[in-house]
């Protein structure tokens, strides 16, 4: 079930909201206090989240419940006062290995087998049948979330969850199940026990949800049509290649940040406060700055649970570069089992390594700010080409077209009819203004005034009209 | 009650009214026609992936609100933005072109030639033989895509004298 579908918006969400806010009356009827009400609500949210997950495929519930059960049990073991240091170490190791093993099986088994077949093919071997496994929805996100919990309990930075139901609710919570944000348990431990529900919070959540919905339906999807045309083209002239790459940069930003806004907004409807995932990333002045602003929940996760445990910058200059490269390569591979994602991660890792000795500033740090932002955006565009292309060969061809080394044919002449339509140009113009504007949706929706309520309502109505008239397009990050 | 609070109450109720109003209108409309609300079908179907997809598609297809608004929205998109929708591309002087035909000319060939783009000759020959068995002669006349015949009506880049099918197979 996707947020921008009829069934979610008009059936699942109203029913869940109605039942959620009706539950206190039920709890009062059975004389439960405030903690009891919250517990009942958590149980209901867990049930709703499992239905939400099962709607994709009922089978997808199993790895989700397994991840919750294993990490909850390990958390309890780690929290025992009599647990020895050795027992604690092996418990956390087993939990992380099991979580990563499950993720690796579902996400990388086919990639590994295909690569092995390719490597062995010259030696007359490599005819291994590739195991095709469906990727359970959200597994990349809830696995990281579960790992973060167990490691935090091991480090002693959070107390182990007492209630399995509350913990499972944290792992499975449907607003952020599909594509994050990756939440730390410490940030939701208190709201899982006690959280407030106010008109202001609900309205702020509804407005943020509406803005995220608009980003997806009004901006990301139309920009994606231009990007699809460019990246699907047999041959391109340079200007079309740049237009297509820019369209994809806007598509992925508004798609993912739109999803994140909707997730944070939905969280507020149920009394939670999730972390923001984006902070105007295309206003970054360097690649280091870009990674402080893009997919913040993933970059902070990689920093805290991979980069720092590897030694961070505490083990010398070269080790710092190795650690950076490892983190970015694995960060790339996390997005998907393909060499294009590895190349994307490696490219970003290289750029970060270049900026490191310059005080985490860019090579062009002395130029005026608009030029710094523009230059960073161009570097990010090149990286998005790697990310978007089906394989490295197509990526090389596309990058070649961007620098004028394409071989345009008659078909390329017709591509302009798909790219430069009035609706496409209008979309790109609005995207450009919003992507480089300092005001972000999560700041705008923090408090709701009359003009904001009217504006959010108008944007929501316009987005619904657009949704009615176009076919469904899934969120890009849902497949990661 | 402060202004911010009143605006929040208004926004919250408005949001809830929209998301609950659409299915409520749908249910009323269906019941007035003497039918059970389609939404309750979910309770009657075995929860398999195929059934859930079908249920979801049925809900969207039967939506009265979406069905009433869709033509107006599409007309507005066409009139204001020259947007021909998912199947049409609006060319110069109002000419319309079939989008999949255009994508065939501009796009990459599919990675697997057997995937939806197989050699049509065996099927044509089999069809010819079946017709011949009934005493009917098959006359085959391949027609190029409209984009190939009138490229200048689609894109300013293609000159008026430009005539081609970029793919010789289309000729």
Can you describe this structure?
The complex is a heterodimer of chains A (480) and B (171). Chain A is mainly α. Chain A has two domains: 56-195; 201-285 and 362-479, no CATH class. Chain A has 19 helices and no strands. The model of chain A has no long low-confidence stretch (mean pLDDT 90). Chain B folds into two domains: 1-80, no CATH class; 82-171, no CATH class. Chain B is extended and about 75 Å long. The chains are: A mainly alpha (480), B mainly alpha (171). Chains A and B meet through helix 1, helix 8, helix 16, helix 17 and helix 19 of A and helix 1, helix 2, helix 3 and helix 4 of B.
First-last Cα distance of chain A: 16 Å
Shape of chain A: globular
For the record, the count of structural domains of chain A works out to: 2
Shape of chain B: extended
Round the Cα radius of gyration of chain A to an integer and report it: 23 Å
The SSE string of chain A, one letter per element, is HHHHHHHHHHHHHHHHHHH
Largest interface: A-B, 61 and 64 residues
What is the total domain count of chain B?
Answer: 2
Largest sheet of chain B, described in full?
Answer: 2 strands, antiparallel
Tell me the total number of β-strands of chain B.
Answer: 2
Going across the major beta sheet of chain B, what is the strand order? 1-2
Number of strands of chain A: 0
SS content category of chain A: mainly alpha
Q: Residue ranges of chain B: pLDDT <50 for 5 or more in a row?
A: 166-171
Termini Cα gap of chain B: 74 Å
What is the average per-residue confidence, as pLDDT of chain B, rounded to a whole number? 84
